[in-house]
Amino acid sequence: MTPGWVPLTKAFYAAKFMGVLPQTHLQVFNDIHVKHIRPVTRDQIADMYADLGVDRDKFLQMYDSFGVDNAVRQAGVVAQDAGVTGVPAMLVNGKYLVTGDMAGSNEAMMPIVDALIAKIEAEKKAKS
């Protein structure tokens, strides 16, 4: 994970641990990847979440927590080991890396991910 992505990765885990990820993730993703809004400081990121209804002070407390820092470190190791070099990227079952480039487009990723999940489930059934 490049240093430039650490603040946004921390934001992801802060939102996850606060339980607000389901209602904020799509809007944050669209702001960054569709509208090309790039918050880079912790305060800009906190403002983005506050605009989505998240308590700014609680968000910053979680953002600065040991738990979030630890999750970011672990995610960096997993991403590096899997060969993730950008987003969007999905790692299925810790084994299969799917990216938009590999799939041919971002839209083509989900059918591939679904097929991999079906393959894994079939393999598990066959073993039991």
Describe it.
It is built from seven helices and two strands. It starts with 5 loop residues before the first helix and ends with a helix. Strand 1 and strand 2 form a beta hairpin. The model has no long low-confidence stretch (mean pLDDT 93). The chain has two domains: 1-84, Glutaredoxin, CATH 3.40.30.10; 88-128, no CATH class. Helices cover 66% and strands 6% of the residues. Strands 1-2 form a two-stranded antiparallel ribbon. The radius of gyration is 16 Å and the shape is globular. It is mainly α and 128 residues long.
Please give a quick description of this structure.
With 128 residues, the protein is mainly alpha-helical.
Estimated structural class: mainly alpha
Q: What order do the strands of the largest sheet run in, or round the barrel if closed?
A: 1-2
CATH architecture classification of the largest domain: 3-Layer(aba) Sandwich
Overall CATH class of the largest domain? Alpha Beta
Using brief descriptors, characterize the structure shown.
2 domains, mainly alpha, Glutaredoxin, 7 helices
Give a topology summary.
Blueprint: H1 6-18, H2 21-33, H3 42-51, H4 56-63, H5 66-82, E1 89-92, E2 96-99, H6 100-103, H7 109-127
